[in-house]
Amino acid sequence: MSAIIDAIVGSTWTAVLGVAVCVVAIALIVLAMFGPGRVRLARSRRRPDAEPPASPLAGAAKVATAIMDRALQSERAGGLEAYLERAGVKAAPQELALLVVVAALVVGALAFVIAGPLLAILLTALVPIGAKLFLDFKTKRRQKAFGNQLDDSLQLMASNLRAGHSLQQALHSVAKEAEAPTSDEFFRAINASRVGRDLTSALEETALRMDSQDFVWVTQAISINREVGGNLADVLDGVSSTIRERDQIRRQVKSLSAEGKLSAIVLMALPVGIVLFLSMTNPGYMGRFMDGLVGYSLIGLCLVLLTVGSLWLRKVVQIKF
Question: Which domains does the chain have, with CATH numbers?
Answer without folding.
Answer: 2-29+55-140 (no CATH), 146-248 (1.20.81.30), 257-317 (no CATH)
